[in-house]
UniProtKB/TrEMBL annotation:
Coiled coil: none annotated. Gene3D superfamilies: Beta Polymerase, domain 2, cca-adding enzyme, domain 2. One of its GO terms (biological process) is tRNA processing. The keyword Magnesium applies. This is CCA tRNA nucleotidyltransferase. Pfam families: HD, PolyA_pol, PolyA_pol_RNAbd. It comes from the Bacteria. Its cofactor is Mg(2+). The keyword DNA-binding does not apply. Residues 262-427 form the HD/PDEase domain. CDD domains: HDc, NT_ClassII-CCAase. Keywords: Magnesium, Metal-binding, Nucleotide-binding, Nucleotidyltransferase, Transferase, tRNA processing. One of its GO terms (molecular function) is nucleotidyltransferase activity.
Length: 491
């Protein structure tokens, strides 16, 4: 390896110092491939991140070797190898805690009407690099000699925080339309700004995302949302029309503001709520009952989507007012539909839609007028989502009126204190009726079934309303309820 005193040489030295913990492994693998007559290079994210002083979670390599030849070399080095995607030329291997993936030089392209890539293996590193998504990912370190390869000016673009493509953007995005989503993700993760020609291509080709599977689109959206600055990526998606293909509910929030400005810009409000929710996330190591270690996908999705029911429910009232009655219920249904379309798992869909449904509940609290029964119901309705609901509700205050903001914050502080007091006294997280199913069946002389279930639900509601009253009072309430039921013979 040789480096010069040029600025590029100095940056390369910094990158190599960042990679120093991995250099013995890189050299070893490079020598093994060279001894077998093959080229090997570290490529893509690990090289880019080394220049940024970031530690990449992956070690990705490209090689002149075929998948079978890669497998043969790795078997002598690794504890285990596996087929990541032989048809795509990728073999994975693990040695101790180190996981690597090695891919044959390749050139892949999408058929204009197909979701599946057509793979062709290449025979040199430069041809492989020109097929990569962006110039900042088209840099490589040849191994074992650590020669830096940057035919498309990726290092300069990285310094300038510019996002460009090695080929023309139209060709790059036609090869894999998901790269447009990746551009938005890199804006959020790395604060890279797409070059004008990239923006133009994204805007003109956004509809091409329709050929990409929902699962791949979802995975890119998740990475964007979990980044440090998701707002910039989301704004780029809206600006270029990508959001219309992926999350059309987001640009739909750009409601035409009425002439008297009686309501906020819902789109800007939603992005601000997302920013504020992120700021409230707890440290990753947090373990408290209501703490939300960041980055938290459910909280971020709920913050972004909490008002998506507003466009469908907007009404202009007599006198110039604007209302959005029941937008939280409509929004919960819309969130459920969209997240299912994006193939999110059931738990995420359920949690996000529930938070959207509950996000206005606090506004009935006023200055503390809720009874203890209402506080209990707030906690039990939120269930394990209570910590996220706390943060979502606080984030939903974007008023510029400092006095109003302070009043809302103080009111929520009061609600949280009341929750903790009632929790401490009543173990709210495990509220159950004061008679169990067996006791209910014995008192009423009934067998297990729907009637018993109704009795149990009634006693649970009674417990929430009245607090802990003891088994005898619960028995009296059960008998009172039973006397009103047609099955009792008395009703």
């Amino acid at each position: 390896m040789s480096t010069s005193t040029t600025p590029e040489g100095a940056l390369l030295l910094q990158a190599l110092r960042h990679l120093s913990p991995s250099l013995p492994l890189l050299t070893d693998l490079g020598e093994r491939f060279a001894a077998a007559g093959h080229e090997l290079a570290l490529v893509g994210g690990p090289v880019r991140d080394a220049f940024l002083g970031r530690t990449s979670p992956d070690l990705d390599f490209t090689s002149s070797a075929s998948p079978e030849q890669i497998e043969h070399v790795l078997e002598a080095w690794a504890d285990t190898t596996w087929d990541v995607g032989r048809a795509f030329g990728t073999i994975g291997a693990r040695r101790g805690d180190v996981v690597v993936e090695v891919t044959t030089y390749r050139a892949d392209a999408y058929d204009p009407e197909s979701r599946k890539p057509v793979v062709a293996f290449g025979d040199n590193l430069e041809e492989d690099l020109v097929r990569r998504d962006f110039t900042v990912n088209a840099m490589a370190l040849r191994l074992p000699d650590l020669t830096f390869v940057d035919p498309h000016g990726g290092l300069e673009d990285l310094q300038e925080r510019a996002l460009r493509t090695p080929h023309t953007p139209e060709v790059s995005f036609s090869d894999d339309p998901l790269r447009m989503m990746r551009a938005a993700r890199f804006a959020a993760q790395l604060r890279l700004v797409p070059a004008p020609e990239v923006l133009t291509a994204m805007s003109g080709m956004a509809s091409r995302l329709s050929i990409v599977s929902a699962e791949r689109v979802r995975d890119e959206l998740v990475k964007l949302l979990l980044a440090d600055d998701p707002r910039s990526g989301l704004e780029l998606m809206v600006q270029t029309g990508l959001a219309e293909e992926v999350l059309p509910e987001l640009p739909a929030l750009q409601l035409e503001v009425d002439e008297h400005h009686r309501h906020k810009d819902v789109y800007e409000h939603s992005l601000t709520v997302l920013d504020q929710a992120i700021a409230l996330e707890d440290p990753p190591e947090a373990t408290g009952a209501d703490e939300v270690p960041g980055p938290d996908l459910v909280l971020r999705l709920a913050a972004l989507l909490h008002d998506i029911g507003k466009p469908a429910t907007r009404r202009f009232e007599p006198g110039g007012g604007v209302s959005f009655h029941h937008h939280e219920l409509v929004g919960a249904r819309m969130a459920r539909t969209r997240l299912r379309a994006l193939r999110f798992d059931k738990d995420t869909v359920k949690a996000v839609s529930r938070l959207v449904e509950l996000h206005l509940r606090f506004h009935g609290y006023g200055s503390g007028e809720w009874t203890d029964s209402a506080v209990r119901r707030y906690v039990t309705d939120a269930g394990p989502l209570l910590g996220r609901l706390h943060k979502l509700t606080r984030s939903d205050s974007t008023t510029r009126n400092r006095r109003k903001a302070a009043r809302l914050a103080a009111s929520y502080d009061d609600l949280e204190r009341r929750i903790e007091r009632i929790r401490a006294a009543e173990e709210l997280g495990a509220v159950r009726p004061e008679l169990d199913g067996n006791q209910i069946a014995e008192i009423l002389g009934i067998a297990p079934g729907p009637v018993l279930g109704r009795g149990y639900k009634h006693l649970l509601a009674f417990r929430l309303d009245a607090g802990p009253v003891g088994p005898e009072a619960a028995r009296e309430e059960l008998l009172r309820w039973w006397s009103e039921q047609p099955e009792s013979g008395d009703g």
